[in-house]
Amino acid sequence: MLERRLNVAVIIGSTRTGRFGPVPAKWIAAEAAKRDDFDVDVIDLAQVWLPDMLPESLDGPLPQAVTDLAPWLARADAFVIVTPEYNHSFPASLKNAIDWYVDEWKAKPVAFVSYGGIAGGLRAVADLRGIFPGLHAVTVRDTVCFPNYQGYFDDEGRPLDPEGCGTAAKTMFDQLAWWGHALCDARARQPYPG
Predict the structure, then answer these.
(1) 149 Cβ neighbours under 8 A, 6+ residues apart
(2) What is the pLDDT of residue 86?
(3) Which terminal Cβ of the chain has fewer Cβ within 10 Å, N or C?
(4) Where in the chain are the domains?
(5) Crossing angle of helices 122-131/92-99, nearest 10°?
(6) d(CA 75, CA 187)
(7) Nearest-CA neighbor of 84 among 32, 132, 127?
(8) Domain 6-189: CATH class, spelled out
């Protein structure tokens, strides 16, 4: 019996001019859409325009861009964060987007697709793994990583090694689905505390 479909939000973390993020994001979203257990949304932080100055408290009125994005994040059962590695970590635009929200992340799984130089963005992922548990989110173990990313995709945005990339994506998605269903079921039985 097929469990209900999970709403998976793919988030493009970089807003930098000339960024590469949309290429792997489009590919990973297409891979996710092939599955019969995922519905996929792509959220591009470069198009959201979240303010970079947070208020003292998130309890008061919020800027329109923040309230506009909130339902998309709240609707998601699971997340795939697509992040580059800038200066041995992830971009400020991604941290800003994470910090604007609290309940939207709670008791949901987060997976990562990273890209960068020789480390392939894994230092960015390592830093993100320390942040999401503080928001009561669970990170999945396996990632999809593109070291020296310029050599991984053709001019049409297709991986040059579709089998290797596809295998890594399937492993990551299988873990994301397991956690996504487990946490959805748990939230349905009882609201997450705190």
Answers:
(1) 20, 24, 115, 116, 120
(2) 94
(3) N
(4) 6-189
(5) 20
(6) 13
(7) 127
(8) alpha beta
The pTM is what? Answer: 0.95
Of 174, 169, 184, 177, whose CA–CA distance to 82 is shortest? 169
Six-digit token pair at 109? 């799984």
Q: How far apart are CA 186 and CA 148, in angstroms?
A: 39
Q: Between 54 and 83, where is the model more confident?
A: 83
- Distance between CA atoms of 23 and 34, rounded to whole angstroms? 17
Q: pLDDT tens digits for 133-191? A: 999 999 999 999 999 998 899 999 999 999 999 999 999 999 999 999 999 999 999 99
Question: Which tokens in the block code for residue 61?
Answer: 């009125």
Q: Which two tokens stand for residue 112?
A: 């990562």
Place of tokens 């941290």: 95
Six-digit token string for 141 = 């173990």
